[in-house]
Amino acid sequence: MKVQIHRVSAALREPFQSSRGRVDRRDLLLLVLEDREGLAGLGEAAPLESYDGVTVDDALAALEDCRGVLEAADGRDQGELLAECERLAVLPQAVAAVDVALWDLAGRRAGQPVWQLLGGPQPTPIEVNHTLSSTDRASAAAEARSATTAGYRCLKAKVAIGDDAGRLAAIRAASAKDTILRVDANGGWTVAEAQAGLRALGPVRLELCEEPVRGPDAVARLAALTDVPLALDETASIPGALDRRLCTAAGLKLTRWGGITGLLDAAQRARAAGYELYLTSTLDGPVGIAAALHVAAAIKPDRACGLATLGLFAGRPDVVPVQAGRMVVPEGPGLGDALRHWYGE
Asked: Which one of the listed residues 2, 156, 177, 253 is annotated catalytic?
């Protein structure tokens, strides 16, 4: 196969602030695998160093380690090829790019969408949350009002970044009465801080708090101390975290689980342990978002998914739109059509 790796740097409309730092631009890698018939599968490596401890250069080096195997891969079994790339690349963010590109290529060869290859039923629109990027009360309230007017039923705000109680109160006041409100601390609290912080946020009626603390033991301790439902995020990928139910839910990311194949396996294990599931992203590009939507069509998430983040980017075409707080799987074979345009290809 012909192997191309493109580095893409995409600016955000506004700085994105979390307890793990500030993001102004997103660097991504687009992997293109083209077979002898000229059909191309797309994959994306989307590490975010402040979240993953993995840089784009790390992911690029890992993908280059797979180049020779991929170039000689025409006709090779998909599972066998992925296993070899997992051995060579190691990093799940790089493995995700290979895995997604192989699924996209398989769908294009078969003339079928990936959700169909996964054995899923005809997909229905998938409910998603709106991620609020504003960090001051007035702007957050205005953003919440705009999002609910646009049809979002679920809003997500970052916490452990200052003025949490005041900002969340403003968001609640500006939202429709039945709006679902969730928060994400990105592991920025200790157990004691999380207990106090969630108690202070009691009046805003939280649906859940995502990744309030870091690590399975800390999550389990906090779950016994608060009535607010908790969800794993970064902690979900720590070995053993999905083997027993530590809290209510698990938000799973495609890039942390090595792509579609790994994400399906993680979802199966999490459900077996008793977790409610939803899918999230870390400012992924449209290939990552589309791949997650295909998985969502197959696993039927229990709660709104955190996949509506493409609108945070500036100057990029709207290739996977959100309508009334829902997203649909892109039409076309493989992952769907028109995704490549977003990357400037």
From this structure: 253
The answer to whether 300 is a known catalytic residue is no
Q: Is the model's pLDDT at 21 over the cut of 90?
A: no
Q: What is the pTM of this model?
A: 0.95
Would you state the pLDDT for residue 74?
72
Q: Which of 156, 158, 177, 300 is catalytic?
A: 158
Provide the 10 A C-beta neighbour count for residue 70.
22
The 10s digit of each residue's pLDDT in 190-199 is 999 999 999 9
pLDDT of residue 58: 97
Render pLDDT for 26-63 as a digit per residue (tens, 0 to 9).
999 999 999 999 999 999 999 998 888 899 999 999 99
Q: Computed from CA positions of residues 139, 20, 238, 92, in that sequence, does the dihedral angle turn out positive or negative?
A: positive
Asked if 212 and 230 count as a contact pair (C-beta separation under 8 A), the reply is: yes
Distance CA 254, CA 256 (A): 6
Q: How far is it, in rounded angstroms, from Cα 43 to Cα 104?
A: 8
DSSP single-letter state for residue 325: T
User: The tokens of 282 are what?
Assistant: 């870390």
**Rounded to 10 degrees, what is the CA torsion of 176, 178, 179, 185?**
130
Burial state string for 304-335 with b = 16 or more CB within 10 A and e = fewer than 16: bbbbbbbebbeebeebbebeebbbbbbebbbb
Known active-site residue 156: no
Rounded to whole angstroms, the Cα distance separating 31 from 67 reads 11
User: Which tens digits make up the pLDDT trace of 220-251?
Assistant: 999 999 999 999 999 999 999 999 999 999 99
Contacts of 23 (CB under 8 A, 6+ apart): 12, 15, 16, 17, 48, 50, 283
DSSP state string for 249-298 = EEEEETGGGTSHHHHHHHHHHHHHHT-EEEEE-SS--HHHHHHHHHHHHH
Whose structure tokens read 């060579």? 88
Q: Which residues, 6 or more positions from 28, have their beta carbon under 8 angstroms from its beta carbon?
A: 7, 8, 9, 10, 44, 45, 46, 56, 284, 285, 343
Q: What is the pLDDT of residue 196?
A: 97
What lies within 8 Å, CB to CB, of 136 at 6+ separation is 163, 167
215: left (phi over 0), alpha (psi -120 to 50) or beta: left
Count of residues for the chain? Answer: 345
